[in-house]
Design goal:
about 200 residues, alpha+beta, Dihydrodipicolinate Reductase, domain 2, 2 domains, four-stranded mixed β-sheet, 10 strands, about 30% strand, RNA 3'-terminal-phosphate cyclase
């Protein structure tokens, strides 16, 4: 979309201690361009990463073991990372569902009193639900794409994507963008439960 953005995590933050710190570098753009995400392209390339901070590494390994056993994914797709720079103890397991044109990231958050296996199973259920939907854009990514697509529409570029039912947050986001960016955002619901979202200049 003609945007040059770099992000670097200086310190991870886990609830309740917090302390996370990220540095973003955004370069000036000559103008945002459009994007089309109507289908997944290529074969699934999954990866699973368990992050652990100030807790036994075995917690992350147990999460990976559950997902590996239930999916049969290649062992090279799994890794446990021990976080050195963090404000406190914590754990997350991340499942990345990568395709040639788009990636979806599912995150399971560890909690006190919740077993690692439960965290892993919950994340895997969400990942499987996304895969079964066959849409390229998940509910959270849909919301995140709206603003850059709105900016591209102001430059005359049309964007579109296919997703599942829109969240209330996305619906509110659409209303705000149409009011302030002078763009036309159309959402068409299909019989199979998918939603076709198009974003274009209101004069186009």
């Amino acid at each position: 979309m003609n945007a040059n953005v770099d992000a670097d995590i200086e310190s991870h933050g886990f609830y309740p201690a917090g302390g996370g710190r990220m540095v973003m570098k955004v370069e000036p753009s000559t103008g945002m361009s459009g994007l089309e995400l109507m289908d997944r392209v290529g074969r699934l390339k999954p990866s699973v990463t368990a992050l652990v901070s100030r807790i036994p590494e075995s917690v992350g390994q147990r999460e990976c073991d559950v997902i590996a056993r239930k999916t049969g994914w290649d062992k090279k797709a799994f890794q446990v990372v021990e976080i050195q720079q963090a404000g406190g103890p914590g754990n997350v397991v991340m499942i990345e569902l990568g395709f040639d044109n788009v990636s979806e990231l599912i995150i399971g958050f560890g909690k006190v009193g919740v077993k690692a296996e439960q965290v892993a199973r919950a994340a895997l259920r969400e990942a499987r639900a996304h895969l079964a939907s066959e849409v390229p854009v998940g509910v959270y990514l849909a919301d995140q794409l709206l603003l850059p697509m709105g900016l591209a529409a102001r430059n005359g570029y049309r964007s579109e994507f296919c997703t599942g039912p829109l969240s209330l947050h996305s619906q509110t986001h659409i209303d705000v963008l149409q009011r302030f960016l002078n763009v036309d955002i159309r959402c068409v619901s299909n019989e199979n439960g998918t939603v076709h979202v198009s974003v274009q200049n209101s004069e186009g």
